[in-house]
Amino acid sequence: MRIHIASDHAGFELKAAVRQHLTARGHEVVDHGAHTFDPDDDYPAFCLECGEAVVADEGSLGIVLGGSGNGEQIAANKVDGVRAALAWSLETARLARQHNNANVVALGGRMHSLDQGLGIIDAFIAEPFSGDERHARRISQLADYEVRVHGAAATPGAGGAGASGGGAGVSPED
Asked: Gly residues bias located where (predicted)?
């Protein structure tokens, strides 16, 4: 699977470990920055680029990393078609995929040990969308909002298939 990843300075070391871990597991990792450690860098540009890449790259997932993951999640969610979830446990990572068909996970590098962080990321990647009608319906409502308010075209994977993998597809017309 292709996985897009981004971080600021606070997630920079974790990003290197995550890239190595995912590559060893056979995933293709695309790094959207930061590419060098800069204690004064800002996360929005990296996270926005990562989110845009996930939406444009059907079947991929994204990971955004920072100190807490909060700002990174907010930034990624500004991209139409991104459903970024802040995960702080194995359960929240799994539920993000099962119930929300999240296509980006945010994680705080200062919040977890390396082993915990890798476990959360692995749980997110491994969990499929449930495809349950109630979950697909809710995701479709969000896609409808994007189209209505932002004038965005329906995004790949907005309902179940496509950018986030698994489950039955749902278009805004459904």
From this structure: 157-174
**pLDDT tens by residue, 20-40:** 999 999 999 999 999 999 999
Q: Could you confirm whether 72 is annotated as catalytic?
A: yes
CB 32 within 8 A of CB 53: yes
Distance CA 99, CA 154 (A): 20
49 is catalytic: no
Distance CA 105, CA 15 (A): 13
For 49-63, the pLDDT digits (tens) are 999 999 999 999 999
**Peptide bond between residue 168 and the one before it cis (omega within 30 degrees of 0):** no
What's the whole-model pTM score?
0.85
* Catalytic one of 49, 52, 72, 146: 72
Give the closest residue to 143 by CA, choosing from 169, 165, 166, 167. 169
- The full DSSP string for 123-160 is HHHHPPP---HHHHHHHHHHHHHIIIII-PPPPTTSSS
Spatial neighbors of 117 by CB under 8 A, at least 6 apart, are 14, 17, 18, 107, 109
